[in-house]
Amino acid sequence: MAAVEIDGIIVSRPTRDEVQGLMVGDLALDCFGKMSRVVSIYAQCDDIHGKAFVLFYTKFGRKSSVSGSMKEGQVVPTLPVTEKWKRTELVPT
To answer: Domain range for residue 17?
Structure first.
């Protein structure tokens, strides 16, 4: 997944291919902004506007997982990202 670091925060705006290609075992941003291993995928399709999205769980510790999501062309909504920038600042141009 293509990601950049801005002010110490990992920011990613995945492409359609990255969203559709995500598989169990891949690394993805978890909700805390860390790259974590995907342990399950529970939805991977297009929304009503034709944008690809994926809902998944990433490994969190030895016996836990946390949910995550990615949508084509949108910044991945991690806690560090949403704490630093307003949603309107993250809209694709």
So the answer is: 4-73
Amino acid code (one letter) for 87: R
Q: Evaluate if pTM is beyond 0.85.
A: no
Domains held by the chain: number: 1
Q: Is the dihedral of CA 73, 74, 80, 83 positive or negative?
A: positive
What per-residue string of b and e applies to 70-79 under the rule 16 or more CB within 10 Å gives b?
Answer: bbbebbbbbe
Per-residue pLDDT of 34-59, as tens digits, reads 889 999 999 999 999 999 999 999 99
Query: 40: closest CA among 21, 59, 63?
Result: 59
Phi-psi region of 90 (alpha: psi -120 to 50; beta: other; left: phi over 0): alpha
20 inside domain: yes
